Structures are given as C-alpha cells and as structure tokens.
C-alpha cells in the first residue's frame, strides 16, 4: 500500500482512533478548515438499518455530513403528512437535508403512485427506485406530471431486473432525461461493470451514487471501508469532478451495521482526503 493511501486512511480516522471507543466512536469529527469541494457527501439510508433515528442523526452530525436519502424503516411509505413533518423536522433541526428517498421498489402502478405521493409529501425531487421495467412508461408519465426525478438503482448479480448500470441504461436511455441512474459502485463492480467507465458513459444521467468499497472483486459481496478495498476510488472521484457531477456521493456502509460510525468516519475521511489531495 502506498504512503499516500496510508495518509488518506489515517486522515479518515482522525479523532476516532486517537481516543477510546465505547459502543460508538468517541470523537469522530470533521477537521476544521477542510478544503470545500464540488463533490458532496451524503448518507444512503440503508446504512442505518439497525440504528435508531436519533442515533443516526447524531452520527451524521459527528462526521459533518448534512445530506440523507431516507429509507422507509425511518418513515414508512404510507405515512401521513403529520408523520412526514415530524421526521423531516428531526433532520432539519440537526441541519440535515433529506434530498431523496429510497431504495423504493415499485412492482405495480399503485406502488408507483405511492412512491411519487411519498416524495411529494417529503418535498424532495429525487426517488431512488427499482420500478419493474414494464412500469417505466408509467413512471415517465409521473415524472412529467410532477417534475420529480427517478434514479434507478443497480443491485448486483443477484438482481434479476437491473444488475449493473449497463442494464439500467438500456432501459432508461430512451426515456425522459429526468429518469436516470443511482450508481451503486460496489454492486456495479460485482456485476462486472467498471464504475469509472459508467460515469464516463452515462454522466449526466447519473443522479445519485451509493459509494462503498469491496475487499475482493467477486460476485459475492465482501464490503470494505472506503479506501481499504480494491475499487478505484481516486479514479472515480476524478471522473466525477471532470463530469461536473452535482448529485450526492452517499456512503452506504454495510459492514458493522449495529455500530457503523467508525466505518462511516473513516470512509468520509478517506473521501475528503482524496479530494483535498487531488486539489
């Protein structure tokens, strides 16, 4: 491993490794004076599957990430307006913006309707979704009616609908330009796609990223902390900057999901370190 890569990994753990940990990282923080970048970090909601909402918000505050795509275990899809206001208010009070919702599966027209109604109540402009391919025409109609964009998520070789970003593109390329991709880089690589090439190829139609790393490159899922695996994260960030990507790069941490803060902190630090090192 290069000295430079060691530096980025060390930067990711500033304030985490230096002090004792008890349950959650005791001192995860964002270094003051960090160089602002055009690429923005978020958190993909699935990261907090086993984390209560108040703890998830606290973790985001501690690592200085202010954008979140919400999952339905925090806010069910059939929530009424009062419940939506309550949950959105919890995040807003902490300075966190809910920018999208998903992954939302849509297998029937009524589930498409529900997803768009949910997004409208939330006041968001992006659904990260998996609509059945035969429903894409109806999804396009809803996009035109509402102006809400849809980013179709690829989910690896086990996914019978959209295993790779190539499969997503083949289904959406002829549709309204507000229907695009949520590029999950780990699952893309497991399905045989190159995430860097996907950004080059599909650029403007990538609306969201789920970023993670892989311990080994195989069809089986072996997640790693960002920067400790085999994916070309520096190359990915360079091409994203070159394409002027304006969406979020949302960490989806799926290792220790009962205590994800140390892994989130290191991943965020590595991401920021790479960007600051690139200048």
Short description:
Helices cover 39% and strands 18% of the residues.
Q: What is the CATH-assigned architecture?
A: Alpha-Beta Barrel
**Overall tally of domains:** 1
Order of helices and strands: HEHEHEHEHEHEHHEEEHEH
Largest sheet: 8 strands, parallel, barrel
Describe the structure.
There is one protein chain. The chain is of the alpha/beta class and 279 residues long. It has one domain: Divalent-metal-dependent TIM barrel enzymes (TIM Barrel, Alpha-Beta Barrel). Helix content is 39%, strand content 18%. The chain has 10 helices and 10 strands. The strands form 2 sheets. It has an 8-stranded parallel barrel, surrounded by 6 helices. Helix 1 crosses helix 10, helix 4 packs parallel to helix 5 and helix 8 runs parallel beside helix 9.
Break the fold down into its secondary structure elements and pairings.
Blueprint: H1 3-12, E1 40-44, H2 53-63, E2 67-70, H3 81-93, E3 97-106, H4 109-122, E4 126-131, H5 136-146, E5 149-153, H6 165-172, E6 179-184, H7 185-190, H8 195-202, E7 206-211, E8 213-214, E9 223-224, H9 233-242, E10 248-251, H10 261-278
Parallel strand pairs: 1-2, 1-10, 2-3, 3-4, 4-5, 5-6, 6-7, 7-10
Antiparallel strand pairs: 8-9
Helix pairs in contact: 1-10, 4-5, 8-9, 9-10
């Amino acid at each position: 491993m290069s000295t430079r890569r060691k530096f980025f990994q060390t930067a990711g753990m500033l304030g985490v490794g230096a002090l004792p940990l008890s349950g959650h990282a005791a001192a995860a923080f964002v270094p003051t004076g960090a160089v602002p970048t055009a690429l923005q970090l978020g958190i993909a909601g699935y990261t907090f599957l086993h984390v209560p909402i108040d703890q998830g918000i606290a973790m985001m505050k501690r690592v200085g990430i202010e954008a979140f795509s919400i999952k339905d275990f925090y806010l069910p899809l059939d929530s009424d307006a009062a419940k939506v206001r309550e949950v959105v208010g919890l995040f807003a009070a902490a300075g966190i913006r809910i920018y999208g919702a998903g992954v939302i599966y849509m297998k029937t027209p009524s589930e498409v309707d529900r997803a768009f109604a949910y997004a409208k109540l939330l006041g968001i402009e992006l659904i990260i979704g998996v609509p059945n391919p035969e429903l894409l025409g109806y999804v396009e109609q809803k996009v035109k009616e509402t102006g809400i964009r849809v980013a179709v998520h690829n989910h690896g070789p086990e996914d019978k609908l959209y295993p790779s970003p190539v499969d997503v593109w083949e289904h959406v390329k002829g549709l309204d330009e507000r229907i695009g991709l949520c590029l999950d880089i780990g699952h893309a690589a497991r399905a045989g796609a190159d995430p860097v090439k996907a950004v080059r190829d599909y650029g403007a139609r990538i609306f969201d990223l789920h970023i993670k790393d892989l311990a080994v490159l195989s069809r089986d899922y072996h997640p790693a902390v960002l920067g400790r695996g085999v994916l070309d994260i520096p190359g990915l960030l360079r091409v994203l900057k070159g394409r002027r990507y304006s969406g979020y790069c949302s960490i989806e941490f799926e290792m220790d999901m009962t205590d994800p803060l140390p892994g989130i902190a290191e991943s965020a630090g590595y991401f920021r370190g790479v960007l600051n090192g690139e200048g």
